[in-house]
Design goal:
Two copies of one chain form a homodimer. By secondary structure, the first copy, chain A, is α/β, with parallel strands linked by helices. The first copy, chain A, folds into two domains: about 150 residues, Rossmann fold; about 160 residues, 3-Layer(bba) Sandwich (Glucose Oxidase, domain 1), CATH 3.50.30.60. Chain A contains eleven helices and 13 strands.
C-alpha cells in the first residue's frame, strides 16, 4: 500500500506501547512503515534536542515516503521554526510526499505555508489515532476512512451536522435552510488555537485573506479561548476571512467563578462581533473522530440548514 | 492624605472580606477612599457586563482622585480594549490622577500607552495587596512603602539583588562586576506575560524600541512561558529592546514529562538567543513584595555585580 515515514518533531514519546500498537496497526493495513532513527529519542520533554528534531524533519523530507506522520504533538515545533529547512520540505511535497499531524504540528503547517505556500494535512498522529489501547485496539472508523482517502488521493471534503441545542442554533440553521451558505474561499487554514495564536506577529503566520479559518484546542478554559480569539479579532485577521469554523474544544475547564461564562458564551460573543459566519462542531480536535483537513487548499464551505460541508481538491 | 478611587474593570470580586480589609487598611492610613458604585457588581465571571466596566473606568477617570486602584485583576480588560475612552483616561492623568493595578490590568496599561502615550503604574491591587488576611492583616512592608512613595510623588526607582544559584549566574555577575551594566532606555514597559502576549499583532501593543521590557506571570508552565517568549522573539520585538527583565513566575506547574525542562531552561535559552542582557528576579509578580513600575517612563537600568537597579523620574 503506502510508504509511511514515522518521526517525532515535538514531544518525546513516553507511551512506547501505544507507539508499537500504532505501527502494528498501520502495518496490518499493508503499509510499509519506516521509523526515523530518533523517533523514540528523549531530551528533557522533547524527542531529542532541537538539532536532532530538525534533522528528523529533514530525513522525513528526504525519505521519499508517500506520507510522513508524526508520532505525537506536545510542544517542540514553535522553538525550531526559524531553523526548519522549508525548501527541502516543500520539494518533498512537490515530489508527492504528504505531511500529516495536528496540535503542535499546526506550527509547522502554518510556517511552511507562510514560507513556501506548500500544503500539509491536519489529520491523524500515530499514537493518539492508531495506538489506541481500548477496546480491542479499535481505531475510530471515520478517522481511519479519511486517513485511507488521503493515501488514495481521494481526500476531497468533510461533512458534518451542526447541533441544534439552543434556540439561537435553530434560528441560525433556519436561516441557512432558507438561504444556503455557499462560500468560495482562497484557502482552508487553521489548527490548534493556542499554537496558531502563538504565531501572530511572526513570519510564521500565513497572511491569508478570503479564507475559511478553523480552530480546535484542548485544556484551555473559556476565558483563555476568548482571549485568544480576541487577539485574532483585534489583529484584524478574522474580519479578513470569509468564515470561521470551530472544531472540538475539549478539557475546557470551568471554574465556580465563571458563573455561566462558558464556551457557548464565547461563540455567541464572537458571532456578535463578526459579520461572517461562525460555524461550530467541525469534527476535528483532540478527539477520536477526525477528518483530514488540507492547510492552505482552496475550498468551498456549504451549509444547508444544519448540514455543513467543506470541499477541496485533493492535494 | 490621598483620594483613592476603587473600581473593578475586570473580574468580579468574590472575596468581600478581603475587599473590606483592603478598604479599611487604606482608610487607617488616612486616605479618603471612594468606591465605584459597581465595584462589587457581578456578571458571569466579570465585575458587571462590558458596558458597566467601561463606565466604571470612565467614572474613575472623572473622579479627580489622586490614584485609581483596581480591586483585582482576573480577566476582563482584553475584551473591552476597543471601547475604552483612552482620551478621557489620559486627560485624567494629565490632571494628576495616577492609575494603578497589575495582571489583567497590563492590557489597559499597554493599550493606553499605545493609544495616547500616557503612563500608568504596575503596582498593587486592593484585595491581593491590602486585603491580606493573615497574619494580623499584615501588608508587605516593601509594597506598602513603594505604594506610599507613589502617593508622595517619590516613586523613582527599584533595586534588587540577583541570585547566585548556578555557576552561570555567578559568571554573569562577575561580568557585571568587572564592567557594570548601564542602560539608558526609551521606556520601561511590560507586565503580565500572558496578557501582554495576547496583544501582539493588535493596535493595543505599544511599538517600543530601545526599551527595557519586563514580564511576570502566574500559573503558566515553563513550556507555555517559553512559547510566549518565542512569539516575542520571532516577532522581532525582543531584539529591538535594550534589556529584558524577568520578574516572578509563580505556580509554574512542572510535569513528570518535563524531565528537567524548567524555568531555568527557558531563561538560559532566551539568553542564548539574544545579544541584550536578560536579568531575572525583579520583585514583581503575583507575590506579596512588589515594586511600583511606571509603564512607558524613560528609565535607566544599572547592574553592578549582583546588584540591579531601575531608575526613572516620578510620573
Amino acid at each position: 500500500m503506502a510508504h509511511i515515514y514515522i518521526y517525532s518533531p515535538a514531544g518525546a514519546v513516553r507511551d512506547k506501547a501505544g507507539f508499537k500498537r500504532g505501527v502494528r496497526r498501520l502495518e496490518s493495513q499493508g503499509h510499509q512503515i519506516e521509523i526515523d532513527k530518533d523517533a523514540l529519542t528523549s531530551h528533557e520533554r522533547f524527542a531529542g534536542d532541537d538539532e536532532t528534531r530538525l534533522q528528523a524533519i529533514s530525513r522525513a523530507a528526504c525519505s521519499g515516503a508517500d506520507l510522513t506522520l508524526i508520532t505525537r504533538g506536545g510542544y517542540g515545533l514553535t522553538r525550531i521554526l526559524p531553523q526548519i529547512n522549508y525548501k527541502l520540505v516543500s520539494q518533498s511535497i512537490a515530489k508527492g510526499t504528504r505531511w500529516m499531524g495536528y496540535s503542535d504540528f499546526t506550527a509547522f503547517q502554518a510556517a511552511l505555508f507562510a514560507q513556501t505556500g506548500a500544503s500539509t494535512i491536519a489529520g491523524a498522529s500515530l499514537i493518539a489515532d492508531f495506538g489506541v489501547a481500548t477496546p480491542k485496539e479499535s481505531v475510530d472508523e471515520i478517522t481511519e476512512a479519511c486517513f485511507g482517502d488521503v493515501l488514495l488521493g481521494q481526500n476531497e471534503g468533510a461533512g458534518w451536522t451542526l447541533p441544534k441545542r439552543t434556540q439561537a442554533d435553530r434560528a441560525l440553521y433556519e436561516q441557512y435552510a432558507a438561504k444556503p451558505l455557499s462560500i468560495k474561499a482562497s484557502s482552508l487554514w487553521g489548527g490548534n488555537l493556542s499554537v496558531l495564536t502563538s504565531l501572530i506577529g511572526t513570519p510564521y503566520l500565513p497572511q491569508v485573506a478570503g479564507g475559511v479559518l478553523w480552530f480546535e484546542d484542548t485544556g484551555e478554559s473559556p476565558f483563555r479561548i476568548e482571549r485568544m480569539l480576541t487577539q485574532w479579532l483585534n489583529a484584524g485577521i478574522l474580519a479578513r476571512q470569509k468564515a470561521i469554523v470551530l472544531g472540538q474544544f475539549t478539557e475546557s475547564k470551568l471554574y465556580p467563578h465563571d458563573r455561566g461564562f462558558n464556551f457557548a458564551s464565547v461563540v455567541a460573543r464572537l458571532r456578535a462581533q463578526l459579520k461572517i459566519p461562525v460555524l461550530t462542531h467541525l469534527p476535528f480536535g483532540h478527539v477520536p473522530t477526525k477528518v483530514m483537513l488540507p492547510f492552505g487548499a482552496p475550498a468551498r464551505l456549504l451549509c444547508d440548514g444544519s448540514d455543513a460541508l467543506l470541499l477541496w481538491d485533493d492535494l
